[in-house]
Structures are given as structure tokens and as C-alpha cells.
């Protein structure tokens, strides 16, 4: 009978010890289900606003077993590595990392991150908090001196930093039940950096996306050439066409005015004109002196006869046949109407 009572007492104490597990702190439903809700007289003011990144910050003496105020435990170790095991002091977006926690004695632990990463092992405490881990799964058999887990950093954290916070407690001795805490802040490198592209390209497209925006920069920048089309404005060259105005050269055609050379022809034409010769028939008879009638004829004689035109010294008239038609009009009067009437009259008979 005594043996049965002792076993029952040990079982109760073991359950009471389990109340201090991480789940006891972050899962209020768990407390209510086990009779530790406010309606049961328990003071919940010691609990801060519970979120995925919060952790205990006060003593929990109203619950059994009691935990004293948290303290920073320098004996807690945190080591970060890449998937291949190489140690890192900064994180890369999209890459798989590992974190290993170590304690001087066996403990359970609550690990939270801010901003949240995504833990892939072991499974997160709740599906709605991928950046929180219940290390040891809130069971007495889960205590250990070290825990290892893997995680990835979201692409949105590129260029920022992540804070890892751990809260741990042991079951024995009683002094181990005080919250022991530690924290580490790791920078997150740019996803496009050499160290990150060498281990993961999961977030590289997001970092390279601005490159297409840079594509329009060369061609549109070169397109100001149309703006440089003021060359049409430089078309004052038509204005520089004063050359037509410089056509006074026709005015310089005083050569027609120089046609007084025909006027000089009368001086030579009488000398050269053989027109008096055609009246030799009445050589011995004084009556048929028609010569007086032909004297007024010299004025038409200056008209350029074929012989006189050839002897004319002025090359200007020879080169310009335009005036010659004016002189030719006077020829018919001289050659056709002057000599025939007097030369063909029969002489009068005498006696």
C-alpha cells in the first residue's frame, strides 16, 4: 500500500515539474486546460503580450515549479554554420544555415527569432510561428546539453539583421530552474553579394531585378540625337542665295549699245559700194543723167551689203546677228527700185 502511494506521489511531482517547460509559458491554452487559467486564481500579468518572437522576461513564482527572474547566461553557446559545416558570422538570404545551442547541463529551451526565419528542423512549436522552436518538445525526456536546428533566411531580410534569443531552464537542481538566457545578432548579407551567390541563388533574381531597369538607360539616353535636329534651323543658306541678285551681268550687255559700228559703216560703204557702176550704158549721152535721181540713194547704201558686212571691223555685230535683220529690211528699196528704170529707156531718135 505504501509502495502504491509513493509511486503516485512521484508521478504527480513529475507532472508538476513539467509545468515549467516552454509550452507552459507560450501556450496559454495548455495552462487553461490544466487548471492554471486566471479563473483559477492564477496571475497572468507576468505574461507579456505573447507573439512568435517574445520570450519570458519576469519571474514566475505563482506557478509550480517557480522560476526566478531571467538572467544572462554566458555559458550558453550559439554557433552558426552553412549547410556544408563552414562557420559563418553573417547570413545569406535563401541559403540553408544551422545553429547549435550548447549548455553546461541538461536543459529544455525556447528559441525565437526577430525578424522571423524559417526553421526546417526540428519542427516549429506551432505552424503559425515558423521562427520559434520548442527545443526538447516540452517533455522531461527531451532535456539535453545541446540542440541543433536548421533554418533559412527570407529574401526580405536581405541587408538587415536577425536576433536569435534563447531561454532555457533545467529541472534539477532547483537553482537550474531559473530562466537562463542568451542572444546573438547576425547581419544578413546582400543576396547579390559574392559570398551569398556562391551558396544560394534562391534570392538572386530579386536582387538582379533592377538590372532590366538599367537596360533602357543606354538606348533612351542616346535618343537625344533627334533633339539635336536644329540643323533645319541652320537653313539660312537659301538666304545666302543673293547670287540671283548678282545677275546684273545682263545689264553689262552694253554690246548692243556698242552697235554704232554700223553708223561708222557709211564712211566705208560709199567707198566700197559699187552701186554707181551699174549706170554705164548712157555713158555718152548727157540726157539720161539719172544720177541726180540716184543721189539720195546713199542713205540706204549704208545697209550692210554682203561685201560690206564682211569688211566690217566690229566683231560685236558679227557675233550678234540680232541687229542684222533690222538692216536687211532696207536692202529691198535700194537694189530693186533704183537702177532698172533709167538704164532701160530707149534713146530718142534724131532727125
Query: Any guess at the CATH architecture of the domain at 2-205?
Result: Sandwich
What is the CATH superfamily of the domain at 2-205? Reeler domain
Percent strand: 15-25%
Number of helices: 14
Rounded Rg: 66 Å
Mean pLDDT, nearest integer? 69
Low-pLDDT segments, ≥5 res: 1-19, 242-286, 288-294, 298-321
Backbone structural class:
alpha+beta
Assembly type: single chain
Helical residue percent?
25-40%
How many individual β-strands? 8
Largest sheet: 8 strands, mixed
Indicate the CATH topology of the domain at 2-205: Immunoglobulin-like
CATH C-level name of the domain at 2-205: Mainly Beta
N-end to C-end Cα span: 220 Å
Helix and strand element order? HHHEEEEEEEEHHHHHHHHHHH
Shape: elongated
Biased composition (Basic residues): 334-351
Signal peptide: 1-20
Biased composition (Low complexity): 260-272, 306-321
Keywords: Signal
Description:
It is a single chain. The protein has 14 helices and 8 strands. With 351 residues, it is of the alpha+beta class. Strands 1, 2, 3, 4, 5, 6, 7 and 8 form an 8-stranded mixed sheet that branches. The longest helix is centred in the first third of the chain and has 17 residues, at 2-18. The chain is elongated, with a radius of gyration of 66 Å. The model is unreliable at 1-19, 242-286, 288-294 and 298-321 (pLDDT under 50).
